[in-house]
Amino acid sequence: MGHVVISSRYRFSSIAYQGYGRGIDLGLVQQLNEAATQSRAADITFLIDLQAELAVERKPKKHDRIEKEDLLFYRRVRQGYLKLAHNDPQVKIIDGAMSVERIARTVIDHLSQ
User: Fold this and answer.
1) How far apart, in whole angstroms, are the C-alpha atoms of residue 4 and residue 111?
2) Which end of the chain is more exposed for a tag (fewer CB within 10 A), N or C?
């Protein structure tokens, strides 16, 4: 208790990528998440949402195994993230098409409330 942790990925990522993207049983992925995180949940999650087509355009030239996936995979992942976000009141969805500076300002403004 009393610690602040900032992470670029957490529970939603494994559910979105493994469950929704790769089709692994959602219940199993969630069960593994619970065990791995000892049921810890984030106080706030910022989901930077971006259309799958734009995300594919922004991929780096050097690809890892996730970045080699096709557009349909990224569409499934995005839909998974959005479904998870809409079922969790601790999630703030931010338009990922905005500039990095505007995204940062949105996060700061939300945390300042």
Assistant:
1) 13
2) N
As a whole number, mean pLDDT of residues 32-51 equals: 90
Structural domain span for residue 21: 11-112
H helix or E strand, kind and range, residue 28: helix 26-37
> What is the secondary structure of 29-89 as a DSSP string?
HHHHHHHHHTT---S-EEEEE--HHHHHHT--SS--TTTTS-HHHHHHHHHHHHHHHHT-T
Query: What is the reported pTM?
Result: 0.84
Q: How far is CA 88 from CA 1, 42, 57, 73, 91, in A?
A: 22, 11, 29, 23, 6
Binned at pLDDT 50, 70 and 90, residue 82 comes out as very high
96: helix, strand or coil: coil
